[in-house]
Each structure stands twice: as structure tokens, then as C-alpha cells.
Amino acid sequence: MTELTYRQALNDTLRAELTRDENVYLIGEEIGVFEGSYKITAGLLKEFGPKRVVDTPISEEGFTGVAIGSAMLGLRPVVEIMTLNFSLIAIDQIVNHAAKMYGMFGGRVKVPLVIRTPGGGGQQLAATHSQNLEVWYAHIPGLKVVAPSNPADAKALLTAAIRDDDPVLFLENLGLYNTKGDVPDGEQVAEIGRAAIAREGTDLTVVSYSRGVVTALEVAEQLAGEGISIEVVDLRSLRPLDRVTFCESVKKTSRAVVFEDDMLSYGVGAEISATIGEAVFDWLDAPVRRVAAAEVPLPYAKPLELAAMPDAAALTKVIRETLAASGYRK
Amino acid sequence: MSEVVMPRLSDTMEEGELSKWLKNVGDTVAKGDVLAEIETDKATMDLEAFEAGVLEQQLVEAGAVVPIGTPVAVIGDGSGSAAKPAPAPAAEETAGASADAPAEAPAGVPAEKPSAEEPAASPAEEPSRTASASRSSEQAEQSSASSAGKPRTSPLARKIAKEHGIDLATLTGSGTQGRIVRADVEAAISAGTGSLAAPTPSAVAPAPAPLGADQQRADVRVPANRLRSVAAKRLTQSQAVPHFFLTSVVDVEKLLAFRGQVNEALASQNLKASINDVIVRAVAVALRQHPEANASWVDDADGQAVVQHGRVNVGIAVATEAGLLVPVIRDADRKSLGQIATETVALAEKARDGKLSLDEMTGGTFSVSNLGMFGIDQFTAVINPPEAAILAVGAASPVPALRDGVLVDVPKLKITLTIDHRVMDGAVAAGFLRDLVGILEQPLRMLL
Which pTM value belongs to this model? Predict the structure, then answer.
């Protein structure tokens, strides 16, 4: 076990997989000489050379297409798209090509592709560079979408994504890169599509993923001081979605709040709460509540940006309301 | 405006008698106020208001018997007209809901707050500054909320209520907008209120849906109420008492005849003595003759001793929905059958209503437990410390007997005495039981 930053865990994992399998290569903007906009690929060009770490022009549609084609021919490309926002330029490649090949060619073509990309706001990057578009991709059959919340999961899920034969969108988060956590040494391969109980509790379940889990754990810790026992479910994968884990949790707690960085309408929270309503209706003692971002283009001005993003205070408030709504007494 | 209907208060209830109005037309009522008393096949229950407002109409007279679901009253804003469409309670609901925070509203982020310009009637219009503002889930919930009469319930509350045979219509909700939640149902279970269907085991459990071969029914955890916790503690203490048991068969032919005569005499006072009342009286008389059975073992600063009590206070085990209670008839040896009958009825009623005072439940020197009404032939009861004995009374049933060479039915019942051996030895207890049987078989002796 070693304490690493989320950033270092990613860097170590890329190095390990480049070393393990010569078919693995990295491709993207500024990932070589500049070592990545967020330094995830630091040192790798020097170590593995320009055939394994490929710098490209600003051409998301182009290099994503190159990666898809090479994956179809047996390589295992790991694409870095500088932020999730820029994946919109490559979305036709991702949705209409990477996701569809396997099905449309009767299983004769595989696309073992990983697209690593950070999402999320809170960095004063303004509306076009601060989005959480992962739910767009989670909507598409043929893709896998994973979103680790901590360094250990970042390592195990990135390893699993690189070794998976389906295209995987690997969601990072600008707010997580500097977070630290214990990472098991040696090879770690996660099972994609398996959620985790990040904290056990009995009174209410908070379901979240990626950066939201960190906030949820903070809130759970704080409320524990008042004797309120919050269970935190870390989805880890948005597609495939592990519906069993959060439904079992709700069966235990009878109350659920979904916490997400993205907008409320048609979001992850909508999917989670609909599933809870369908699967464990009889165990609910209060309506499932969602805490999400204000439905506005994210403002640039810091106070407005903070006001628009869901935070610990908003989550705490809704948890308290949900407890109160079901006659919770300590 | 909403109609109050005759609620279903037990599984077997088909109609109820609105025995008494407790609110008059024009009275202001709060949620949870008792509007009237309802008499069912099982018990007298309170009819509570589920909405606040003014009692506008009483649709049935006191004493009327109506089927469940029949409207019996109208609660409104006080304008009185039953035909008037009702904006008033709805408006009140809305105001209340928005006042105590958008408890059901989407994410509580600042942008969700309505601006001051927005009309008060749409408190939760989505904040979006775009042209296509959506309507919020709070509005959706409120529009579905106004279907009159049916209480809001959480799915979990419904599930637990069903498992315990509790009628949700008899509960008051503590959740948002009066929603009945798990805590309310569990409170009703531990309080024994909320129309548990009926005291007979067959009626308590609603017929469960048949399970498939591969399904398992989950365990149900019913938290112990205070009564059950106290009982568990006391009964466990009782296990430390060295017990022994003596059983006798009592010929109750004369006792039944005696009770008939007593009841004829009591009829003018509108009183009726039960078999149990007669047994309590007989026990009291026997205890007066046998102070060694009306005693307690003590082990205190003055050393070990048997204390023979100066008063004869007989406890009567009463089954209530909340659990077993043992109210005490004080000085039963100095009370007439009529007094014992009157007191027993009053104490049993208080026990079932959960209104017994501590004083009425303590100070017993001997207890009687009767399961004859359940058809139990014979059983042993657990001593209620610090008492030295308890009498368990079974059901009277006809037993063939030869009398003057003729085979006849003789009604007999079995009584079993549980004795604290520290206080009484076998021969002493047997002497008490023999005399008790003598009194029961020659009931005129209890008048001596």
C-alpha cells in the first residue's frame, strides 16, 4: 500500500500497462513533449518514445478516429482528450463508430479503446470548459463509462479499461487530480460495472460517483458526529450500472439521496431514483431526492460558479430534509 | 373541503356505529383531533381528523350504524357549503408546504429559489433563466396531493402496516405534509394502537399472499415497546424463583349456578359477574384463611424472611394489544362480588386504553391468570414477583361423571397453582389449593 495522488496513480498505471503490453499506446494533444495539460503522462514520452506516446495536432475527431481504426486492427490505444468538453468534436467517432462496430459487424470487430478525459467544473474555466457530459455517453449501448473517485479505483479501473475489449470512456475530474489515497501495490484489475460501499451506514443512502463521492464522504463524516449514519455508494461505473448495490443499500436504509455534479434533468440521479422506485419501492420511507447543479451554463465568476455547483451544504440540507420527511428521530 | 369517512378499524369490521360526536358543527379542528367515537365489533375507537379546518357538516347522527367508507362528516374552511369547490385547503397546504422549506423540491441550491417577482402561487417554478422553464417535481407532487381523504403514506409504512395488520387510515402521519412514515407505524405497533385487527391470533395476521416455492418470507423485527421490555425483565427475574406446580380439577356445576343467581340479583344494578370475578372472590377468601399463601420472600438488611401481607390484593392478568398487564383489585377479600365485577371491568378497560396508573398495577399479593376464554384446558403461569403464587385458570368443559348411578355431564375446570417454594412447601400450598377448590365447589362458602 502506497499513498499516491490520483494523478500519480494514473501515471503509474499508464507506465505499467505500456510496459506490460506492447500493443498499448497513448495518443492525444500535448501528451508527449508537454507531458499533458494535467501532467498525467509526465515522463512517458522519454521512457517509451514517440511511437508509444503520440502527440497530435488539435484534431479530436481525427486522432479519435485514428485510435478507433488502430484498435480495430488489434492495438490498444489510450486516447487523452484534454477535457470532456472537447469530446463533442469527436462525438460522431465515439458514438457512431467506436460504440457501434462490435454490434454492427456481428461481433467480428472489437474496439479495445480507452478515452481518458477529465470533466467537471469549479476551476473557473467557464461554461464551455466545465461540463459533465458523461451522462451523454452513459446513454449509449456499446460504450462503457467508468468514473473512479479515488486513487486506488483510478488505478484498478484504468488497468481494467485498457484490458477490456470494449471502448471505455474513462472519466477523470479536475478536482480530483491532487487528492491522495492509499493505493494497493502490484497489479490491480477492477471489475467494470461493480459499485462500492464507500462508507457503511444505516439511516440514509447517498449515491454518487467521481468527485461527488468525496463530498458525500465529507458530509457523512460530519453527520456521524451528530449520530446520523449515512451510507455512501460509489457507483464507479455509469455503464454498465450496478443497480443491485444501491438498491440493496436502500433496502437497508429506506432513504436515498443522489448527489451529482451534473444538471438534475435527465441526469444520473434520474436514472438512479427511477431504478430505486422500480426495484425497491416497498422499502422507501421517503421520496428519493436529487442534489445536482443549477440548470444554468456554469458561470465564470467564482462566487457564481460556487453557487451553481452542488456542494456539501446543499447535500447536507437535502439529507436533513429527507430524514425529517420520514420522521427520523435520533 | 374533505369528507371524513367511516374508517376500517379492524380486519373484520364491516360497519361501525358512530356512538358519539365529540366536535360540533362549526368547531375548528386540528389534524389529529378526535371528531367522534366509533364503536366497532371489537372496541370503541377514536375517529381522528386528517385535515385541519372547520367541521362543516355532521352527515350522520350519533348512534347511526354505517358501512365503512360512508362519509360521516365534512371538514372545510368554514364556509359551510358542501357543494362549493375547494380552493381553501389546497391553498393552505401550498402555503404550509412552501413555508417549511421545499422539502420535496429538487436540489436545494440557491438558483432553485424562486425570485421575489414570482407569484406566490407557484413557489417552485424552476429557476432556469431560459425560456423553457420546466415545472418542478414539487408542483407535480402538489397537484397529485389533493385527492381528498386518502392519507399520504410512504411505501415502507404501507408494507410494515400490512405485515402487522394495521389500518393506515387510523394513523396520523408525522412526515412531510402529514405523510404516514415508518416511524408512525412502528409507534402504533409498540403503543398497540392503530387498530390491530383483533385479539384472536387468526385475525391479527391478514392472510399473506401465497409464496412461490423459491421465495422466502423475510424476518420481521418488531421493536420491544416499554411494556414488553419491562415484562421481559420481570419474567426473567421470576425464573430465579424456585417454582413448583399443583393442579386440581374443580367441579363448577354449583359455581355456574351460583353465578347465574348472583347475576340475576345484580341485573337491577346493570352489573354482571364473570366466572373470573367469582374465582377472584374465592381466591381472596381462601387467602384470608391462608395468610401463608398471601406472602413474599424477602432478603434484605434485616435478613431473610417470609412476609405475610396484611392486605389481600389480587392481580388480574389482562391481555392488551400492547402486551400483558396485571391491574390489582385491592382488598378483594373485603369486597363484594358486585364491587369486584365493577372494578374489574373498569381496570380492564383502562388497561386496554393504556390508562392504568402505576398505583393500579402495583401492590398485588397474588395473581390470577385465566385463558379459559381461549379454550385452554390447563396451563402453568409464571409468578409475578414478589408474589408467592399465581393461579392459572383453564376452560370449564363438560366431563362425564356418575352421579347416583346415572351418567351425567359435569362442568369442570382445571386450576394450576404456581408456587414460590421459598415461601411455601408442598403440603402448605396443597392445603391452600384444597380449600380454594372447596370454596369453588361450595360457592356459598365465599359468603361466610
Answer: 0.54
